């Protein structure tokens, strides 16, 4: 099996703060890998390495290598726009643009220079279907995305990310702002999407990590404490810290 | 179908496969008993390893289901029921192995007359039918069918109760066949326990489908 | 028990008293506003007529209309907007979206804020020295517009910055994550969202421009000019200055007093209209932003 994502000894500093301490990990294609850990443990920061979202923050220093398909994404001369097309991202809070449902999905295509009307229409429909939203919105594509419910907005954001055909999908607590029904819809969707994408997901919800992921990584204070199959982590973790965290006994 | 349902279906399928295997094991011991087929008996003993492996696998899958799927309500009862049914099936498998063991150790074929008067074949028929019916009840979530088990268990009990006096008579008439008679008695005792296992399974099915706990209540046992 | 009941009552009374004071002061503000309005309306309404609004001033501004002053004020407002809008919005975009947090950025912000605190007469002097004399525009619409533009620049920069800041970073990140560049993100996501608030700030600055006297004193305003301008290098009359002139140094202050109240009424009406327009536009655009 080809390794598509791999990090080797990654360190990240915000100014003087050492936020990630020597993280090495390998993620397999077409799997869901969950990052869990208490707030401030570095899991979101780690997730944002893969589409270089941390570049937006001033005073960040990164060492080590982050390879996607064997190429270091932090090498000089890497086209960030190209990288972000390949590595889509869904955020914690649904953040649709103040545009119509249609234009939200088309946005990624348009900024990447796609102008063909039919192509865009096809892609919008396909992405919405992939995100299990098509049936709910097909009659109101010209309506504002803000008219959708929170759960629908989040699926719209997933569809938006899928429209530019990434191979990897980063999800930063995608269901934390949603009600249980919407949450389980998103979880089902993740399960479906796994067939075509490699998914990395940050979650505060341990049950969610258990339900949706194949592999789980537990972060604590910037360290990767344990990384293994979700089955192993949730039935017999090796590290006592992992056990304490997932059982809610964290001190 | 949602992800959880898929996973639970796999669990259900695994359980039903084990079930079929256990029924086959029991049928084979009957055949081995009637035809005094020692090879078949050895096969049953060998297959018991498969039954045990399946039990471990289902146990493990149940653990994973609890840890990873967080089942609640009917799904939770389903996994709990599977866990117990798994145990019952494993014991039924052990019973088949036990019968197969004394067949393979027996020196002579079993007397036809002995088999007839003890009604051991009838007992086989009942217990296997019970296992088959309760499997259907499990597959189709048919609690009505599951409830019929409680009456049918009584027939097995009756044969079991009569077996004692019949065998006492038989041994006093043919003391040279004492060992054979005791073996048959032990087979009958074991088959009676198969009926109990089937009954337990029926309770688990009713529990998971209707959320009713029937154990240890006389009223529950008489229902249906 | 009775003790705690007592303290409870005292607390209640204190609260009542505080509320009473607050209510009194807020009513006072409203009362003052109404008093001023009523005063101006009662005195000014008498002279308002079609002729007053569209006619030229006559007989040493004791008779006739104020049309050139209205036109002048409009021209100055538009002229100052043409300068202040692009400069203000673009510089706000630069400081808010492009500049990294540094002492330099903080310095620029501090200076912008200081600029807002400079008395308008100083702007007038500066405008006279730079635009009128050094650049040689003379007393002209362009000199006055640029001076007024400078005056409102800090307001426009600040409101634009606030408008940009109020947009959650997650929208920018959402755009970057789709492979959009910074410019695309600003143009297609940030600006459309900030637009309603930017427009509001802009229109409020219009209100300020139309009422300012000091900056136009030395740069554009004509004392008495009963004709319309032909180019941006012409002088014009303007409402606030006209008001000042006819109430202090006209040919006959007493006789032109009713004209002064009429002018004041027109000025107030314009400022009020601009405010209403600002609100309406903001509502319109914030709805539109959601729709497109």
Would you spell out the secondary-structure blueprint of this structure?
The complex is a heterotrimer of chains A (251), B (224) and C (292).
Chain A: E1 5-14, E2 17-27, E3 32-36, H1 43-47, E4 60-68, E5 71-72, H2 80-86, E6 87-90, H3 101-111, H4 117-130, H5 134-137, H6 150-163, E7 168-172, H7 180-193, E8 198-202, H8 206-212, E9 215-220, E10 223-229, H9 230-235, H10 240-246
Parallel strand pairs in A: 3-8, 3-9, 6-7, 7-8
Antiparallel strand pairs in A: 1-2, 1-4, 4-5, 9-10
Chain B: H1 3-35, H2 38-69, H3 73-105, H4 112-117, H5 120-140, H6 143-173, H7 178-210, H8 218-222
Helix pairs in contact in B: 1-2, 1-3, 1-5, 2-3, 3-7, 5-6, 5-7, 6-7
Chain C: H1 2-44, H2 50-54, E1 57-58, E2 63-64, H3 67-98, H4 103-117, H5 120-134, H6 141-165, H7 169-177, H8 182-211, H9 214-217, H10 239-248, H11 257-291
Antiparallel strand pairs in C: 1-2
Helix pairs in contact in C: 1-11, 3-6, 3-8, 4-6, 5-6, 6-8, 7-8, 8-11, 10-11
Largest sheet of chain A: 6 strands, mixed
- Along the chain, the helix and strand elements of chain A come as EEEHEEHEHHHHEHEHEEHH
Low-confidence stretches of chain A: none
- Biggest chain pair contact, residues each? A-C, 30 and 24 residues
The geometry of chain A reads as globular
Radius of gyration of chain B: 19 Å
Structure description:
- The complex is a heterotrimer of chains A (251), B (224) and C (292).
- Chain A has one domain: P-loop containing nucleotide triphosphate hydrolases (Rossmann fold), CATH 3.40.50.300.
- Chain A is built from ten helices and ten strands.
- Helix content of chain A is 35%, strand content 25%.
- Chain A is globular.
- Chain A has helices at residues 43-47, 80-86, 101-111, 117-130, 134-137, 150-163, 180-193, 206-212, 230-235, 240-246; strands spanning 5-14, 17-27, 32-36, 60-68, 71-72, 87-90, 168-172, 198-202, 215-220, 223-229.
- The longest helix of chain A has 14 residues, at 117-130.
- With 224 residues, chain B is mainly α.
- Chain B has one domain (3-222): Methane Monooxygenase Hydroxylase, Chain G, domain 1.
- The two termini of chain B are 33 Å apart.
- Mean pLDDT of chain B is 90; it is low at 219-224.
- Chain A binds chain C through residues 51, 53, 56, 58, 81-82, 84-85, 88-89, 91-93, 95-100, 103, 107-108, 111-112, 144, 146, 157, 160-161, 164, and chain C through 100-101, 168, 170-181, 184, 188-189, 192-193, 289-292.
């Amino acid at each position: 099996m080809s390794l598509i994502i791999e990090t080797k000894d990654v360190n990240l500093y915000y100014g003087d703060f050492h936020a990630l301490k020597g993280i090495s990990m390998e993620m397999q294609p077409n799997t869901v890998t969950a990052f869990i850990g208490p707030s401030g443990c570095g899991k979101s920061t780690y997730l944002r390495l893969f589409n270089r979202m941390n570049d937006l923050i001033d005073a960040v220093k990164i060492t080590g290598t982050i390879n996607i398909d064997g190429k270091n994404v932090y090498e000089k001369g890497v086209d960030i726009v190209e990288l972000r097309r390949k590595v889509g991202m869904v955020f914690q809070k649904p953040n649709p643009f103040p545009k119509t449902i249609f234009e939200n999905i088309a946005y990624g295509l348009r900024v990447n220079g796609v102008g063909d009307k039919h192509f865009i229409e096809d892609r919008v429909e396909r992405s919405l279907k992939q995100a299990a939203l098509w049936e709910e919105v097909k009659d109101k594509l010209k309506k504002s995305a803000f008219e959708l419910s929170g759960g629908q907005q989040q699926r719209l954001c997933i569809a938006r990310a899928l429209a530019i055909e990434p191979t990897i999908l980063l999800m930063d607590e995608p269901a934390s702002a949603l009600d249980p029904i919407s949450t389980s819809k998103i979880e089902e969707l993740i399960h479906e999407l796994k067939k075509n994408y490699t998914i990395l997901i940050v979650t505060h919800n341990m049950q969610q990590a258990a339900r949706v992921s194949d592999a789980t990584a537990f972060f604590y204070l910037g360290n990767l404490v344990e990384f293994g199959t979700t089955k192993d982590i949730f039935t017999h973790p090796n590290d006592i810290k992992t056990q304490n965290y997932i059982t809610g006994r964290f001190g | 179908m949602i992800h959880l349902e898929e996973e639970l279906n796999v669990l259900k399928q695994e359980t039903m496969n084990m079930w079929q295997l256990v029924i086959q094991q029991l049928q084979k011991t009957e055949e081995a008993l009637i035809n005094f087929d020692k090879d078949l008996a050895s096969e049953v003993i060998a297959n018991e390893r498969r039954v045990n492996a399946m039990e471990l696998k289902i146990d493990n899958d149940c653990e994973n289901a609890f840890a990873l799927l967080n089942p609640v309500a009917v799904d939770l009862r389903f996994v709990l029921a599977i866990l117990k049914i798994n145990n019952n099936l494993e014991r039924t498998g052990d019973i088949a192995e036990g019968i197969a063991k004394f067949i393979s150790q027996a020196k002579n074929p079993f007397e036809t007359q002995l088999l007839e008067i003890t009604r051991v074949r009838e007992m086989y028929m009942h217990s296997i039918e019970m296992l088959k019916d309760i499997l259907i009840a499990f597959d189709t979530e048919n609690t009505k069918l599951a409830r019929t088990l409680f009456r049918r268990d009584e027939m097995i009990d009756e044969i079991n109760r009569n077996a004692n006096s019949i065998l006492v008579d038989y041994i006093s008439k043919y003391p040279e066949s004492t060992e054979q008679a005791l073996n048959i008695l032990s087979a009958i005792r074991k088959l009676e326990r198969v009926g109990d296992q089937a009954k337990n399974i029926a309770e688990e099915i009713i529990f998971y489908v209707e959320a009713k706990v029937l154990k240890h209540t006389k009223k529950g046992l008489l229902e249906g | 028990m009775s003790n705690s009941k007592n303290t409870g009552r005292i607390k209640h009374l204190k609260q009542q008293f505080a509320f009473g004071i607050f209510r009194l002061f807020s009513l006072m503000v409203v009362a003052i506003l109404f008093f001023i309005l009523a005063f101006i309306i009662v005195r000014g309404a008498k002279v308002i007529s079609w002729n007053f609004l569209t006619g030229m001033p006559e007989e040493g501004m004791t008779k006739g209309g104020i049309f050139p002053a209205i036109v002048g004020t409009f021209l100055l407002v538009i002229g100052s907007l043409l300068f202040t809008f692009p400069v203000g919005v673009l510089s706000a975009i630069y400081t808010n979206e492009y500049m990294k947090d540094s002492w330099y950025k903080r310095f620029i912000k501090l200076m912008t804020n200081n600029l807002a605190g400079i008395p308008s007469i100083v702007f007038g002097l500066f405008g006279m020295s730079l635009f009128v004399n050094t650049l040689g525009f003379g007393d002209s619409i362009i000199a006055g517009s640029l001076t007024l533009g400078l005056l409102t620049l800090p307001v426009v920069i600040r409101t634009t910055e606030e408008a940009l800041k109020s947009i959650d970073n997650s929208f920018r990140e959402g755009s970057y994550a789709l492979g959009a560049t910074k410019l695309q993100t600003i143009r297609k996501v940030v600006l459309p969202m900030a637009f309603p608030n930017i427009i509001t700030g802009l229109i409020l600055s219009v209100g300020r421009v139309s009422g300012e006297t000091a900056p136009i004193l030395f740069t554009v305003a004509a004392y008495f000019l009963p004709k319309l301008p032909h180019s941006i290098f012409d002088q014009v009359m303007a409402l606030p200055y006209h008001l000042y002139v006819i109430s202090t140094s006209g040919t006959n202050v007493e006789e032109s007093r009713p004209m002064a109240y009429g002018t004041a009424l027109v000025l107030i009406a314009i400022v009020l209209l601009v405010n209403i327009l600002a609100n309406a536009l903001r509502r319109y655009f914030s709805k539109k932003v959601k729709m497109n």
